[in-house]
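Subgroup meeting minutes
Present: P.N., E.W., G.H.
Scribe: E.W.

1. P.N. recapped why we're keeping a running log of single-chain structure predictions: easier to compare across weeks, and new members can see raw inputs and outputs side by side.
2. G.H. added today's entry (252 aa).
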Amino acid sequence: MSGVFSHDYKAFPFMVFSASHIAMVVLFAAAAVLLFIFRKGLYRLDHKFRLYMFLLLFTLELFYHLWLYHGGKWDLSFTLPLQLCSISLVLCLLLLASKSKTVFQIVYYIGVTGALMAILTPEMFLGFPHFRYFQFFITHNLIVWTCLYFVFVHQFRPTGKGLFQAFIFLNFCAAAAFFANKLTGGNYMFLSRKPVNPSLIDYFGPHPYYIITLEIAALFLFLLLLLPFKMIGKDKAGKERRNLHETCKNRN
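Output recorded in log:
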């Protein structure tokens, strides 16, 4: 294959925080804002919109594997769905198809955390206008957009129980990735070594100690994702108590 579907990494270099990288970050933020603005209209188109998101996510991932296979690059050491974002992608497909609140709880925490890190510090080696550049960023953006869609449009809310479930699920996935790394020589979930490209993991200490730091960081980020909803819940509860108090006063 040639051109934008080639495996010529030198022809399409990718640089972190280059113009093409920032463009995708801006696209992510703009689409997130639009999801919020048009949430009521999207609710009326819910079935079709979820179908379009499902097909786009599934098709891009399928084409990625076909691209690897036809280029002779498909390998069990990195193509199994055992990276955090690959797991999140599968969960997003399940969420879009089922509207499961249980799936939402898990993918909200691990999907938003993993995909945001990937968008901001991508382990990417092919840049604009290569197929992989678009496939990588659009799929990772879609993971977060799917979670935000269910928050904005369907009023799904993450919970403390969901945080616990997501953290347990994450560790089960890490155990599976650990054994897969032993069998394939891969680096699923970066448990064998750090990413080649610069990332937050560079500040988490040497291998294998950074894995413990990753666990702590994941739990901290999960708590950050829950915090806004806890604050909103407390504010609503406070308003309801004040309204009830005012009603009782007026009756008296």
